[in-house]
Amino acid sequence: MATILAVAETRDGAVRAVSHEIVSAARGLADSVGADVEVIVLGSAGTEASAAGLGAAGADRILVAENDAFGVYAPEAAVRAVSDYAANGACLAVLFAATAQGKDLSARCAARLDRSLATEVTQIGAEDGAIVVQRPVYAGKAYARLRLPTGPALVSLRPNVFPVTDTPGRGVVEALEVDHGSPRTRVVGFERGEREQLDVTEASIVVTGGRGMQSPDHWALLEDLVDALGPGATLGASRAVVDAGWRPHGEQVGQTGKVVSPGLYFAIGISGAIQHIAGMRTANVIVAVNRDAEAPIFGVANYGLVGDIFDVLPRLTEEIRAARGASA
Q1: Is the pTM of this model over 0.85?
Q2: Half-sphere exposure in the Cβ direction for 183 (13 Å, CA)
Q3: What residue numbers bound the domain in which 247 lies?
Q4: 104 burial class (0-12, 13-18, 19+ CB within 10 angstroms)?
């Protein structure tokens, strides 16, 4: 039977939340073409328990390769595993997440399979035997509609765009044998940031500061707001802030940073350059605070507050704390 293949991502022995989005998107596509959904999961020992949950998102078969070598992303072995499996004639499409790992893996697989790759896709379907996708172009000012021949079509999906649906598949878990080969490189360790926080692509609320914060010394105001908003909130930063060395690149939101689609997005002291807007315009609710009433950010904001951010932020934080305390 024809299949749609989803490629899951793991971290610390567990399937990442974005993988459920990819599987749900694969389920919707598979239902439209009469195909099954298969998922490849590469992870360290114990990953199978977490992978089984992908059945609830729509997976029919969950192919799990457990090995300590997959405790961190191992591109050479992952490319072989995914591309070799996708090369069989029954695979109509392979879906990846457009994360840092997914972008690397999808591009490598496209090269190995000699296929085109559609990236940062925000809509996917099928028409007349071809996979049809939509993706933003020109920093999100327009959308391109592409037809991809199957056999297979390779697509990376923008995170936080495709909802996790309650359309369970059979959820059969099977072991997948993978040739690890002799990798030319290996990861020997990680250096984590001093402040542990949610990644901006996974948070339901993102508070992003821009050059209007004037100094990294004022970032405590944003941290207080994040704390007031509670679990699910995290800090982001504009490119200007990251380029100035105030914040790490991992927090950068925008075309050259990370694309986010949280339920609630705060743009604090951000003018609204198109490169930044391209990275956050799909947020459900956007709140902008800026003293310049003509700032472009107000053109995409659902709620805008014109004022001095150093007066507004403490009051906003206080009101949010009081509101959350009253509802507790």
Answers
A1: no
A2: 16
A3: 205-327
A4: middle
Residues 188-235 have pLDDT tens digits of: 777 766 656 888 988 999 999 999 999 999 999 999 999 999 999 999
CATH number, residue 319: 3.40.50.1220
Of 257, 197, 261, the residue nearest 232 (C-alpha): 197
Whether 184 is covered by a domain: the verdict is no
Q: For residue 159, is the peptide bond before it cis, meaning its omega torsion is within 30 degrees of 0?
A: no
Q: What CATH number is given to the structural domain containing 58?
A: 3.40.50.620
Q: How many CB atoms lie within 10 A of CB 295?
A: 21
Task: Return d(Cα 265, Cα 207) in angstroms, integer.
Answer: 6
Domain match, 170 and 214 both: no
Residues 168 and 253 both lie in one domain:
no
Q: How far apart are the first and last CA of the chain?
A: 51
What count of residues does the chain have?
Answer: 328
